[in-house]
Amino acid sequence: MVSTKKAIAPRKTAKKAASKKTGAKAAKPSASEPSGKVKLLSGGNPQIPKGDGDAPVQAYIAAMPGWKREVGERLDALLEKHIPDLQKAVKWNSPFYGVEGQGWFIATHVFTRFVRITFFYGQSLKPMPPGPSKDKNARYLDIHENDKVDEEQLVSWLKQAAALPGWLKH
């Protein structure tokens, strides 16, 4: 579990001490620290440092360019409303959503022309999300700028996916 207590020692010393104590590397400065702007990677995907909890996910959503931010905000709100014990993290420059003790069930990612929702066990959902994947279990839902999203179907998929054992890779 990550402590939220502030260190009394100067920042570098605290990082070095934590690194020596746990064997972990000192954290690199955030991509957004120097200028307050987040670097956008290929396709406009925000580069957000990995981290557990709501804060890194909200930083990712806030950095999503243009109309894509609304997609991220709406998806996050639907998940908050409909999925009990929701867990959040940013891994590999993508928000991940899971259920405590069950693993991750979806991730999102920004591409040039769409926002992709990856259902890790989408093959088990009824009906299956439309986007095929090279992974035998996964299915995608790609949302383009002017798409009309069937929220009732999306919520059904989210609830079904959250009820399945999730993906546990950390």
Describe the structure in brief:
With 170 residues, the protein is α+β, with helices and mostly antiparallel strands. It has helices at 11-22, 54-63, 68-82, 151-163, and strands spanning 51-52, 86-91, 94-99, 103-110, 114-119, 139-144.
Secondary structure layout plus pairing:
Blueprint: H1 11-22, E1 51-52, H2 54-63, H3 68-82, E2 86-91, E3 94-99, E4 103-110, E5 114-119, E6 139-144, H4 151-163
Antiparallel strand pairs: 1-2, 2-3, 3-4, 4-5, 5-6
Task: Explain what this protein looks like in three dimensions.
With 170 residues, this protein is α+β, with helices and mostly antiparallel strands. The protein has one domain (40-163): Aspartate Aminotransferase, domain 1 (Alpha-Beta Complex), CATH 3.90.1150. It has helices spanning 11-22, 54-63, 68-82, 151-163, and strands spanning 51-52, 86-91, 94-99, 103-110, 114-119, 139-144. Strands 1-2-3-4-5-6 form a 6-stranded antiparallel β-sheet. Strand 3 (94-99) and strand 4 form a beta hairpin. The chain starts with 10 loop residues before the first helix and ends in a 7-residue tail after the last helix. Mean pLDDT is 83; it is low at 1-35.
Largest sheet: 6 strands, antiparallel
What's the CATH architecture name?
Answer: Alpha-Beta Complex
* Overall form: globular
Number of helices: 4
Report low-confidence residues grouped into runs of 5 or more: 1-35
CATH topology: Aspartate Aminotransferase, domain 1
Q: Helix coverage percent of residues? A: 25-40%
Order of helices and strands: HEHHEEEEEH
Q: Got a strand count?
A: 6
Radius of gyration of CA atoms, rounded to a whole number: 17 Å
Beta-strand proportion: 15-25%
Per CATH, the class reads: Alpha Beta
Counting helices, strands and paired strands, the structural category is alpha+beta
Head-to-tail CA distance between termini: 14 Å
Number of domains: 1
Provide the residue-averaged pLDDT: 83
Strand order of the largest sheet: 1-2-3-4-5-6
